[in-house]
Amino acid sequence: MNAARIPLVAGNWKMNTTVPEGLALASELRALALPDGVEVAVLPPFTHLWPLYDALGGRFALGAQDAFWEDAGAYTGEISPASLSGWCDYVLVGHSERRHLLGETDEQVSHKLRRALTHDLRVIVAVGETLDERERGSTIDVVRRQISAAFEGVCLAELERCVVAYEPVWAIGTGHTATPEHAQEVCHVIRTLLDELDPAADGERQRILYGGSVTGENAAALFGEHDIDGGLVGGASLNPAEFFAIIVAAARSGAIT
Ligand code: PEP
């Protein structure tokens, strides 16, 4: 973590909790004494977004787990970024579960990113290699391809509204967290790639998150790395005590370095 960047911890609830369960979880989160110096976002299922907008009491940023690449039309079941704009803070695009379980392509991720950026939304762009790609030694090539495809045509002002989350697919939901050294190495490459997107870009200002089995126990070591500015957290974000420990680790990492 670099002190110039405010760490972000984003809790991705995925397809977990019913609306009443989500409201109960939100009220537990709301009771937490959040430390200063860290931004915390909650990304619940779509059905929960509107009720949580009130229930979180403005103390947490709110994010959607995805949004479509058109604003309106005959796209049954999709969610328009226009419908999120003005009250939702973040949209996540390119999560590996969408890329690998639902067949989302680099091009579709890019369309989603660009459409979301036409609205008053910040975008978390998730990238990361599969185990097979890692074992073949192509982690950096995969991440480079995903970043270049996603950010093609994105201008500097828009880039500044983006956060990249490095999430190795083999670490998501598996308990096999990347080592801080591995995560740092890839996040550093991502920062360099972001720098290269525009001659005026300043990669040092971009926030880059690590995601993949982050827990209260391993968060401090991960967030202590120079190029890791917080986490995208799945499973642990459903447990308020665990999520709180991760938030505290992120706040400390911002204060120390
Ligand atoms: C995620 O959903 O983006 C994620 C990183 O999940 P987990 O923390 O459960 O590995």
What's the SSE blueprint?
Blueprint: E1 8-12, H1 19-30, E2 39-43, H2 46-55, E3 61-64, H3 81-84, E4 90-93, H4 96-101, H5 106-117, E5 122-127, H6 131-135, H7 139-151, H8 156-159, E6 162-166, H9 180-197, E7 207-211, H10 219-223, E8 230-233, H11 240-256
Parallel strand pairs: 1-2, 1-8, 2-3, 3-4, 4-5, 5-6, 6-7, 7-8
The structure holds phosphoenolpyruvate (PEP).
Phosphoenolpyruvate binds next to strand 8.
Description:
Helix content is 41%, strand content 15%. By secondary structure, the protein is of the alpha/beta class. It has a single domain (8-254), classed as TIM Barrel, CATH 3.20.20. The longest helix has 18 residues, at 180-197. The protein is globular and about 45 Å long. Phosphoenolpyruvate is lined by residues 12, 14, 167, 172-173, 211-214, 232-236.
Characteristics of this structure?
single chain; 257 residues; alpha/beta; TIM Barrel; eight-stranded parallel barrel; 11 helices; globular; binds phosphoenolpyruvate
pLDDT < 50 runs, ≥5 residues: none
Strand tally: 8
Number of helix segments?
Answer: 11
Work out the count of structural domains. 1
Can you tell me the overall shape? globular
Helix content: 40-55%
Class derived from helix and strand content = alpha/beta
* CATH architecture grouping: Alpha-Beta Barrel
Strand order of the largest sheet: 1-2-3-4-5-6-7-8
CATH topology: TIM Barrel
Query: Which value, in Å, is the CA radius of gyration?
Result: 17 Å
CATH superfamily label: Aldolase class I
Cα separation of the termini: 6 Å
Unique ligands:
phosphoenolpyruvate
SSE order in H/E notation?
A: EHEHEHEHHEHHHEHEHEH
